[in-house]
Amino acid sequence: MLLQSPPRALSLADVAGISQSLAEDLGRIVLKTEGFSVEDYLSLDGNYLLEYVDGCLQVLPMPDALHQAIAFVLANLLVSYAKDDADARVKLSPFRVYLNDRKYREPDVCFMRGINAHRRNRKFWIGADLVVEVISESNRDHDWQTKMLDYAEAGIPEYWIIDPEQGIVHIFKLIEARYGLHGDFGIGTLATSPTLAGLSVVVNDLLQQAAAQA
Asked: What are phi and psi of 100, to 5 degrees?
């Protein structure tokens, strides 16, 4: 859902139907005729999933237990992978990733090597070395189309889409500003990273561990 002002401004009562904490945060912002500013967006700090696109705030669907468990298991895998890189970091949503002056996204999981630590601050990262989205059935096109284009335009080297319903990890590598498919890894296969040497995950293990924690 998009929130904007105008031409289709919503009341705080409307917003409260989505998230009470978001309504409370928005109550502190003076809406401008052109919509929300980046400063408005970055000032919001409540308990919700929210992205910024061209002056609009996009409220993301709340993930279910399996969705969250997959992200958590994969984040732990990345922490283990980067154990010898003291300055590497892993973040789980909600956490902002700057793509350009008009767009901030909140990937389910994002990873940045220590060599790029200068691109991080407490409010957001500037890009990432890897972003991961776990598909929500209510928001499938957002991950496959919108976010894929956005992450490619931002120059993020690698993008994973995890489809729990199909049991597939789709991995893409950035090639000349567009993502090319590295592989579709299903049950019984080892999903490998094309840009992060040594990073891999057994798809069965990922999904089974997540299911056990969901």
From this structure: -160, 180
pLDDT per position as a tens digit, 170-193: 999 999 999 999 999 999 999 999
H/E element holding 40? helix 38-43
d(CA 86, CA 153): 29
List the structure tokens of 63.
Answer: 């993930």
- Beta carbons of 171 and 151 less than 8 angstroms apart: no
Tell which wins on pLDDT, 174 or 142. Answer: 174
What are the boundaries of each domain within the chain? 2-59, 65-213
Cα–Cα distance for residue pair 123/131, rounded to 1 Å: 17
Identify which of 64, 70, 80, 68 has the alpha carbon closest to the alpha carbon of residue 204.
Answer: 70
CATH of region 65-213: 3.90.1570.10
